[in-house]
Amino acid sequence: MLTPITIRGNLVCLEPMTMDHVHDLCAAASEDRSTYHLTKVPDGVDDTKRYIEGALVAYSQGQELPFVVRHLETGRIVGTTRFLDLDVFSSLPTGASTGPTPSDATPPTVAEIGSTWYAASAQRTGVNTECKLLLLTHAFEKWGSIRVTLKTDARNNRSRTAIERLGAKFEGIRRAHVPASDGGIRDSAYYSILAAEWPVVRANLEEKLERD
């Protein structure tokens, strides 16, 4: 299993998500919900408890590594993000369908960054840029991952623009992929960053943070 980690930047600190974060995360989600119609964001204390419980179950199964985002200047929790869809590539015995569970000894070969949302006050600031810089740096430079995926509802132009500004490459649309947060079935827009592309992406993010 991967050990929960804290990743600290200049603007934010990514802390391992725990049940102790219920009320702070609920408060962040309650500021202004007008931008959440295409994003799964918990609403109310009970929903936030279920949200965190689900993330912790996925962590215990080796599927995810969830964080809350703490704004360093104010000390407030302003959102959440996580690694998910973690996979280790290895030589598999005949008949095996999966590799070993990701752990500190066998870190993920590929990963996804997702389930990201921020309080209204943290949107359109440098928070998301630094969060992505911290997570991508960890994936490519600590784990040695070869690919990081990002995806969003294909209708979510705001999210797609943010992903594209990171320097991720558009891969295509997966049709009728998962239930949509606003009802119905969503198409998902897929993007990725490869290890070979990381130096350019990192320089772009660092420059963007300086401008912000």
Automatic annotation (TrEMBL):
GO terms for molecular function: acyltransferase activity, transferring groups other than amino-acyl groups. Pfam families: Acetyltransf_3. Keywords: Transferase. It comes from the Bacteria. Residues 13-169 form the N-acetyltransferase domain. PANTHER family: BLL6696 PROTEIN, N-ACETYLTRANSFERASE DOMAIN-CONTAINING PROTEIN. This is N-acetyltransferase. It comes from Brevibacillus fluminis. The lineage of its organism: Bacteria, Bacillati, Bacillota, Bacilli, Bacillales.
